[in-house]
Model the fold of this input.
Amino acid sequence: MKSVRIGAGQGFWGDSPFPALQVAQSGDVKYLCCDALAELTLAILQKARQKDPDKGYVEDLFFTMLLQPCYQKSIKILTNAGGINPSGAGRAVYGLAQKMGLKGLKIAVITGDDLLPRLGELKKAGVDLSDMECGGDISSIEDRILFANAYLGAQPMVEALKAGADVVITGRTSDPAQFLAPMVYELGWGWEDWDRLSAGILLGHLMECSAQSTGGNFGGDWWNIPDMERIGYPVAEVWENGDAVLTKPEGTGGWVKLNTVKEQMLYEVHDPAGYITPDVVADFTSPTLEEDGPNRVRITGMKGRQRPERLKVSIGYSDGWLGEALIRYSWPQAMKKARKAEEIIRKQFASLGLTFDEMITEYIGYNSLSGPLAWGDGDDLNEVGLRIAVRTRNKADAARMPRLLPPLALNGPPTASGAGGMPRPRELIGLWSALVPREEVEKQVRLDILEVE
Done:
């Protein structure tokens, strides 16, 4: 039975490229698939594009380190690192490949996920762009919208592979789509073969977060995981019937066990019986998982159903400005000092007439991660950091708040250190999610091929 081996190369922008290099060198893979985006990433990339219209794509060491080894071993790379500027990413990779002398390398650039120029047209045509979570009317943010990107599926990437692409660069896609595309292309799956497409989506989901299936970020007995300093990224061998084995390159750290795989299986999943993607609705409750030897988990019996007729669009909009400051206090009575500092600052806000759209205070070391679940009163802590953050409508108000904390080093409770605010306010970008008819997105998808001379 025909099969294909696919390796994971990236779980987010800034992920380590070294395990990906190990996958390319010793994973015996034909494809290296990389998920570089989150909805937060789009906001960061938008800020980069605001400063330089040629930016807006993921820039890190990934292509610098991986492009040549993959070219030498005929490993194809698929990535959504194009962010909100796939064409810019394509040009950058083309230039890098030219410098490396990778003659004949074909770089496919897929565009069409950008719906920003068409939001008015869609609204006029009667498309409901209400927020999926709160039901709000998009008119409330229309004058502040910065980007609008729909989630594409695997089909354009399959077309790119059919065109001979060695590197496939997309913008916003569903996270597992990079992994599904080579399975469809290599194994001859049809676009209505819901069970096998679902198997590909599950495998993509298990691989999209790099080492989370091989022991990274594991909530079980993580202290027993071996050699985490050289943890391996997952590799999947997939057969044409949809069965698969998840493993990792020989000699790498971490482990592939039922618990690590099951934990990632449920990661960021709202409804395990209905995991919605542009390609298929997958049923994560259906497959059988069993250990098939050391660092091998076999996955069989995946089921799915027809894909949705509407695609999700992530819309980013300007949502005010962040002003932030931090001051730290040490033992004794660290928490008491921090609480007094907060009291002083709030009174100063009132006397100066400063008001904010939103303000949060956190005690780092006590409740900045746990929030209301923090226990005890914190009086026994060795040190505490008081963080104050505000959201304002304008940049000037956001800049005023952090200036109040440094004087507390001499004018407030004792043992203050590290008192300071951010040097500049930061623009906040809110996210609005809506659904649009599939055909409105797919009719504008375009594939361009750049071949290195």
Observations:
- The two ends are 38 Å apart (CA to CA).
- The chain has two domains: 3-113+151-308, 315-431.
